[in-house]
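User: quick one, sequence for these tokens?
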């Protein structure tokens, strides 16, 4: 592995200042950046470790939303009494990410900033209509994800927290690749005061997306039976050695129906 400078800021302001250095990269749980560095895919001059920033921790419920610090690990989200009570589907999602090591090291903010097309958290953010808070602004879920490994984050911008509105009903279903435990297809459904949302990860060639055709069917009646016979177009879906676009298209309504039944 190449040499690099290593910084451990104690505050968000210090982290942002350090991030302004050319060639600097933030690290949180290290589940993606370190692997990319080992493979020679990225070579930052400076690595800025966010684990010591206390302001990025903590989980609380306020104003009808669960607010989760970007530095919270998947294991912390899964074990949180606040999350389990307010949005049990989100706790379920976090508790089934990767393996035990990944859950104890990987963080919410790191997952979202990386925006892997098969990651689980993007489906929860989009499926709940969450708001991503950074050191300089607030981003609605629809405005945050821009495609494969691409987000609205600007250079040096730090995710500080995510606000998840508490839904009336919600559930998560994941058809995982057995070795990596990434989603071949993952579907997060929610019913809120103003909208029904169905978010899909692992299937879209451009990353996470909303299945609006399924949302329309569930808007009338929130029941698994509403999705009987529903189809999703395979156009713009992902094909790889694990499954074709048609295979993923067939899985989406099945998983959505299961999620609705479980909500």
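Assistant:
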């Amino acid at each position: 592995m190449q040499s690099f400078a290593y910084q451990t800021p104690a505050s968000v302001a210090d982290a942002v200042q350090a991030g302004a250095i050319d060639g600097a990269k933030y690290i949180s749980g290290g589940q993606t950046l370190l692997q990319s560095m080992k493979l020679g895919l990225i070579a930052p001059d400076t690595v800025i470790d966010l684990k010591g920033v206390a302001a990025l921790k903590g989980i609380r419920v306020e104003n009808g939303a669960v607010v989760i610090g970007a530095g919270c690990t998947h294991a912390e989200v899964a074990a949180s009494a606040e999350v389990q009570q307010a949005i049990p589907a989100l706790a379920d999602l976090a508790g089934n990410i990767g393996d035990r090591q990944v859950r104890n090291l990987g963080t919410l903010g790191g997952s979202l900033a990386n925006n892997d097309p098969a990651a689980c958290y993007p489906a929860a953010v989009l499926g709940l209509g969450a708001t991503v808070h950074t050191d300089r602004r607030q981003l609605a879920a629809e405005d945050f994800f821009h495609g494969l490994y691409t987000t609205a984050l600007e250079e040096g911008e730090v995710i500080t927290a995510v606000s998840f509105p508490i839904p009336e009903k919600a559930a998560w279903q994941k058809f995982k690749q057995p070795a990596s435990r990434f989603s071949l297809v993952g579907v997060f459904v929610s019913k809120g005061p103003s909208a029904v949302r169905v978010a899909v990860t692992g299937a879209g060639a451009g990353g996470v997306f909303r299945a609006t055709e399924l949302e329309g069917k569930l808007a009338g009646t929130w029941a698994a039976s509403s999705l009987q016979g529903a189809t999703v177009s395979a156009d713009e879906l992902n094909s790889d050695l694990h499954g074709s676009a048609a295979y993923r298209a067939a899985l989406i309504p099945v998983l959505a129906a299961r999620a609705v039944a479980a909500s």
